[in-house]
Amino acid sequence: MKLCMLLKLKNGIRNKKLGRYQIFIYIFFIYIFYFFCSGCFTAAQLQSPKVLDEGEIEIGGGTTLIYSENSLSVYELLANLRIGIGRNTDVGFRVFGMIERFGKIGGDWEGWKGWGGIYADIKHQFTEKLPYVSGVLGVSYSIFNITLYPSLIVGTDRFYASFGPSVIAGFGFDEGFKVGFGLARLSIGYSFGGKIRLTPEVGTVIPLSDEEGRISGFFSAFGISFRQ
Fold first, then answer.
1. Which of 2, 44, 143, 160 is buried most deeply by CB count within 10 Å?
2. What's the CATH code of the domain at 172?
């Protein structure tokens, strides 16, 4: 009897510590979400169409390389948080920072500039049998632009294909706020592992306008995440 009581007390303390740990994660990501934003768009999905169970949490990070005109154009680092909220739905949050090459319009590359941004999405799984089909509506925010990411993801809990546009609305000091341009995104990926997952992804970004200086090309991404 005493042993059972001790085990229950120990498990209760452990659950309280886990609860505090989760609250800290939420506060950390919300703080970054609201205060650290200054940049452009994010390319990779790094998620399958299978939503998380209610209460399930996935924490991770990754990197993306975008190649344009046979050279590295963008280097992106990102941190992700996903939470299952039930009813075949989960929500995600992302903080990303990137370094982008500039100066290609009418000449050679001049240098690099840094960007950062915040991203959130909601994903709903439409089918409960294979192949899973999910719709994602995401939005990223920065000081100078807002980007919408409507996407469709098809596949399994491991392999997936994702496609959709990125519609970017920007603010310029001389032109004011206006809808800028769009990008078509197409990618495929595969997740390895159980609680700890490794997810490589490759894809392409294609401008939907003929305006000069728009990044186009292929990207490769790699993510690592932990589920609990």
1. 44
2. 2.40.160
User: Does 186 lie in the same domain as 126?
Assistant: yes
Q: How does pLDDT run across 153-176, given as a tens digit for each residue?
A: 999 999 999 999 888 776 554 455
Check whether residue 25 and residue 45 sit in a common domain. no
CA dihedral 113, 186, 83, 50 (to 10 degrees): -160
Are residues 145 and 171 in contact, defined by beta-carbon separation less than 8 angstroms? yes
Rounded-to-integer distance, Cα 211 and Cα 108, Å: 18
pLDDT tens per residue, range 183-202: 888 999 999 998 999 999 99
Residues 128 and 186 reside in one and the same domain: yes
Q: How many CA atoms lie within 13 A of 18 on its CB side?
A: 10
Q: What is the pTM of this model?
A: 0.77
Q: Are 63 and 221 in contact (CB under 8 A)?
A: yes
- pLDDT reported for residue 35: 45
Pairing of strands 192-193, 196-207: antiparallel
Nearest CA to 96 out of 73, 119, 121, 130 is that of 119
Domain that holds residue 9: 1-35
C-alpha 157/C-alpha 167 separation (Å) is 27
Query: Residue 70 corresponds to which tokens in the numbers above?
Result: 């046979």
